Automatic annotation (TrEMBL):
Keywords: ANK repeat, Repeat
Top-rank taxon: Eukaryota
The keyword Repeat appears for this protein: yes
Name assigned to this protein: Ankyrin repeat protein, putative
Organism: Trichomonas vaginalis (strain ATCC PRA-98 / G3)
Cellular component, GO, one term: nucleus
Any GO BP annotation: positive regulation of transcription by RNA polymerase II
Length: 157
């Protein structure tokens, strides 16, 4: 989807299933987040059944990916905030990400170098003490990723 809200609205009105799933369990809301189009995301939030739908993203070698996870990949705070406001689980763990397992969204945001999304997650009570399958916290992950902004390392953890 290129982001054309009018076209999407037209197609839904003509009977397209807004909750249709691909073989990877990807729904239109996942693609809207990936396109970083807040207008489309808001449309799908309003019309979709589930903002926590889990999908597989082949490009990221990932499973169990929710729209909120995707907002970390596209570094979009406005989309992350909208999803959280409408019930996205800030503590949802990703099934797998580039061979790593049991990563929380806050881990993913540190790996993806998204300090503004980390701040949003912390403000919305994401578990900063969550550990991944290697026993690492998000602070350890942030320290490991040297490109991560200093202010995040000293934020409200």
């Amino acid at each position: 989807m290129s982001g054309n809200v009018e076209l999407v609205t037209f197609l839904v009105e003509k009977g397209c299933d807004i909750n249709a799933k691909s073989p990877a369990n990807t729904q239109p809301i996942n693609y809207a987040v990936q396109s970083a189009n807040i207008n489309l995301v808001n449309y799908f939030i309003e019309k979709s059944e589930d903002v926590n739908v889990k999908a597989k993203l082949y490009s990221k070698k990932s499973t169990g990916v929710t729209p909120l996870h995707i907002s970390c990949f596209v570094h979009d705070e406005e989309i992350a905030s909208a999803l959280i406001f409408h019930g996205a689980n800030v503590n949802e763990k990703i099934g797998e990400y580039n061979g790593k397992k049991n990563l929380s969204i806050i881990h993913l945001a540190t790996i993806e170098d998204s300090p503004s999304i980390v701040e949003i997650l912390v403000k919305n009570k994401a578990d900063v003490k969550a550990i991944d399958d290697e026993g690492k916290t998000c602070l350890m992950t942030a320290a490991e990723n040297s490109a991560f902004e200093k202010k995040c390392l000293h934020s409200q953890f």
